[in-house]
UniProtKB/TrEMBL annotation:
Name this polypeptide is given: Cytochrome c
Protein's UniProt keywords contain Ribosomal protein: no
Record organism: Dechloromonas hankyongensis
Keywords carried by this UniProt record: Electron transport, Heme, Iron, Metal-binding, Transport
Domain of life according to the entry: Bacteria
PANTHER family: CYTOCHROME C-553-LIKE (PTHR37823)
Pfam families xrefs: Cytochrom_C
High-level lineage: Bacteria, Pseudomonadati, Pseudomonadota, Betaproteobacteria, Rhodocyclales
Cytochrome c domain ranges (all copies): 43-127, 161-270
Amino acid sequence: MTRQQARLFAIFSSAVVTIAFLGMTVDTHSQIPRLTHEDKLTPQVIAGKDVWHKYNCTNCHTLLGEGAYYAPDLTKIAVQRGPEYLRAFMHDPSRFYDEQKVRRVMPQQHLSEQEITDLIAFLEWIGHIDTQGWPPRRILVSGAAIPGTNAGQQAPAPSSEPVALGQALFNAAPPGCSACHSISPGVNLVGPTLADIATRAAQMLQSPDYHGKAKDVAGYIRESIIDPNAYVVPGATYSVEQRSIMPGNFGKELTAQQIDQLVAYLASLK
């Protein structure tokens, strides 16, 4: 190749790369309104963003890959944990974390009720952005490896049996059950361990304290998924003013088949 040919090749290659880059840039920007559901960017969401910056949340947390890594990534926290948990946590973080166990806790920020409401709206908006799979693993309560969890990694179902499909769904995000529930005895995360949920459900159905509508173990588990307030499990971090902090929208977010699969899996945990 002569010097002139090399020069022409370099110019042509640079032009092709530039055109491709500009094309991808235009395509990306054209998709941003859809990926970020820009139509739901309300004044309250913007107010929540201001709260996020006012209290320097980004000094510890990460959103969409931006921020510090001292504390968990919160990109999908509103989807994984729900507004009831977030509200209770922001009111009093010390209820959920023991400094003797995790060695670091979120400081009490003394947010007002309106600031909490606005911040939740902001995190909910962030949580529904199509992030193309980010973050790579779900948030966990006190680290990347907790007994009874799969460290946030989703594994494919080993078979098409309902129990196997339910186990895969339990570890999937959404619904992200394993982000709040362990399946190891005595390991309580945001919610109680589900290690022996089938046994405890059978016992609860016989208890005078139970006032739900379930008649059997499968029904109790199904009721707990669809209506967490039908029976609130006692526990300092499980409820606020007798209302469960578990999201109550799984009956709408999950299909009937998915709920059947989760019930089959949880009913096998004895």
